[in-house]
Inverse folding.
């Protein structure tokens, strides 16, 4: 499959998700949105993954490229290309689906508990995770469930995952590597509710299991996408342009998220 990885800066790559795509023998393309330009048309991809960033999904006055990304993701949704979003990526997919994105009641930063809902336990993608797990978080915003979607996971603060058709979004960082977490802690230590060294130390003890969960999650997403692609091929449809059954504003600066 041809998979697009959408990122928002050099320190927020696709982590173990990108690694899983490559290990699976798929063709990985990357679009670093703030650097400008556009990827190939959405219809040329079999799956799209959208990752985090230090900006917020309503900061168009500071990041004019957010509107360009939203337009691309609206095309992804309209064509039913399987998509998976993480943190800012999930918020941007929710925004593209016309759901509300807004500050959460409080930030979630560090290793915090997330619990799957009944829909999450039954989901072919999120359902590969434990019913309850401590996951890496770094966000100040949340999203409403898009119309017609389902909530797949929650924390004590907000919704942690949703599904809308062939689109999934998670608030937590299942893609994060130890190197990424170290970089974030170094870049924004003042945003942390604990000393940076403490976060890094906890991450060192937890990252192996987190990476295993992240790889499972990405592999499950790719399996669903590939299954849809095979079904489209069997039906004799091209699967690129009509309905796809394949895999894929406040202006004031605020505290960064990932």
């Amino acid at each position: 499959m041809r998979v697009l990885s959408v990122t928002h800066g050099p320190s927020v790559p696709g982590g173990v998700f990108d690694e899983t795509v490559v290990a699976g023998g798929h063709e990985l393309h990357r679009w670093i949105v703030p650097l400008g330009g556009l990827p190939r048309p959405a219809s040329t991809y079999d799956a799209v993954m959208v990752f985090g960033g230090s900006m917020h999904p309503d900061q168009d006055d500071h990041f004019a490229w957010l509107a360009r990304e939203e337009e691309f993701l609206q095309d992804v949704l309209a064509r039913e290309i399987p998509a998976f979003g993480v943190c800012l990526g999930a918020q941007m997919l929710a925004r593209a689906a016309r759901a509300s994105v807004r500050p959460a009641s409080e930030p979630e930063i560090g290793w915090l508990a997330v619990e799957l809902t009944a829909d999450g336990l039954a989901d072919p993608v999120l359902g590969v995770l434990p019913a309850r797990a401590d996951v890496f978080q770094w966000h100040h915003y949340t999203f409403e469930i898009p119309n017609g979607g389902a909530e797949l996971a929650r924390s004590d603060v907000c919704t942690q995952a949703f599904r809308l058709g062939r689109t999934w979004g998670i608030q937590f960082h299942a893609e994060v590597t130890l190197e990424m977490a170290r970089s974030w802690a170094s870049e924004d230590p003042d945003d942390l509710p604990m000393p940076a060294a403490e976060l890094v130390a906890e991450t060192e003890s937890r990252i192996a299991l987190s990476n295993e969960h992240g790889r499972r999650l990405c592999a499950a997403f790719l399996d669903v996408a590939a299954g849809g692609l095979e079904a489209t091929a069997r039906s004799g449809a091209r699967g690129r342009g009509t309905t796809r059954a394949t895999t894929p504003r406040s202006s004031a600066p605020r505290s960064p998220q990932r």
